[in-house]
Write a structure and sequence with these properties.
It is a single chain. This protein is mainly beta. Helices cover about 10% and strands about 40% of the residues. It is built from 2 helices and 12 strands. A hairpin with a 5-residue loop joins strand 2 and strand 3. It is globular and about 35 Å long.
């Protein structure tokens, strides 16, 4: 099934914005999920979830991950699973924040994980940018399960 054919169905569930007129520069959505022991787990013991986004047009987006249960860590990959952004604590407190530039008609994978291995819990991802459409179904089938997401120390 093509991604574009999923967009009308997702709109019914309130997961994507509807077009119609000018560009909304304050377009913000919230995605809530839970990392559990049933989530993906890499060889280093980091549990993670993958969320897919489709870029409707080229532009900058902001993704902020927060959690009351763990120190969040966020990674974004392009459709070929090349890492384009990662962050641990650039947001408020322990929040992870990335500002990738996305290219029209491309799929991006947002990897929600923890800064410390073997942690689980609730999290929210706030994303801002009128050019992205959330498609939560793609990432779970398209992403490899053997990803080492261990945070890399900053120099």
């Amino acid at each position: 099934m093509k991604l574009r054919s999923l967009i009308p169905a997702l709109a019914l569930f309130g997961l994507v914005g509807c077009g119609g007129g000018g560009v909304n520069t304050d377009f913000t959505r919230n995605l809530s999920d839970v990392i559990t022991t049933q989530s993906y787990q890499d060889s280093l013991g980091f549990y993670y979830n993958v969320h897919a986004f489709f870029a409707d047009r080229t532009g900058n987006s902001t993704f902020v991950m927060s959690s009351p249960d763990f120190d969040p860590f966020l990674i974004m990959e392009d459709e070929n699973h090349n890492e384009i952004a990662r962050d641990d604590n650039s947001g408020a407190g322990d929040d992870a924040l990335i500002n990738p530039r996305l290219t029209r008609d491309h799929i991006y994978y947002l990897i929600a994980t923890t800064a410390i291995s073997n942690r689980t819990g609730r999290y929210d991802i706030l994303y801002h940018g009128d050019q992205v459409t959330y498609d939560g179904t793609r990432g779970l089938t398209a992403h490899p399960q053997n990803l080492n997401v261990k945070p890399v120390p900053e120099n």
